């Protein structure tokens, strides 16, 4: 499936304009391509209780599921400056559930996207749950 990375980056940058980040000042936007061609989006939503902040990727995953599910094929995450922002560890796990190790993560213009499997090697995923339950 071909990926319009410029579009994903532009949509992610647009999402930074909706970011609610009064505490850190770090605006984050994310846009993903689902396997049916749908685009899904998210922005970070901070909270006075800092630890319950929602990352942009959380919103993206929620958008994916709420609009019909499917698998993620490609994701761009950017900060307010438009440059790629490395997904945090928790978000790598969230993305893994819905895109697996082959999910292409934007590394910026001029760079090959990074497979999620390189960002989260040896991941624990859905198959591990069924394989290990009750043992
Ligand atoms: N943030 C994200 O939205 N995604 C990440 O993967 C890393 C961090 C947000 C959370 C918080 O609002 C701000 O960036 C600073 O940590």
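Q: What amino acid sequence fits the structure above?
A:
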């Amino acid at each position: 499936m071909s990926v319009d990375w410029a579009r994903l980056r532009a949509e992610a940058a647009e999402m930074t304009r909706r970011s609610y980040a009064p505490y850190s000042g770090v605006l984050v936007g994310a846009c993903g391509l689902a396997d049916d061609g749908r685009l899904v989006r998210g922005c970070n939503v901070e909270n006075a209780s800092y630890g319950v902040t929602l990352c942009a990727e959380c919103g993206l995953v929620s958008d994916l599921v709420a609009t019909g599910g499917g698998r993620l094929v490609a994701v761009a995450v950017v900060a307010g400056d438009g440059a790629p922002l490395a997904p945090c560890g928790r978000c790598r796990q969230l993305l893994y559930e819905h895109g697996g190790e082959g999910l292409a993560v934007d590394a910026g213009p001029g760079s090959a996207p990074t497979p999620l499997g390189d960002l989260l090697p040896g991941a624990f995923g859905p198959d591990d749950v069924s394989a290990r339950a009750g043992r």
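Q: And what stands out in the fold?
A: The helical segments are 5-16, 56-66, 89-99, 116-119, 126-132.
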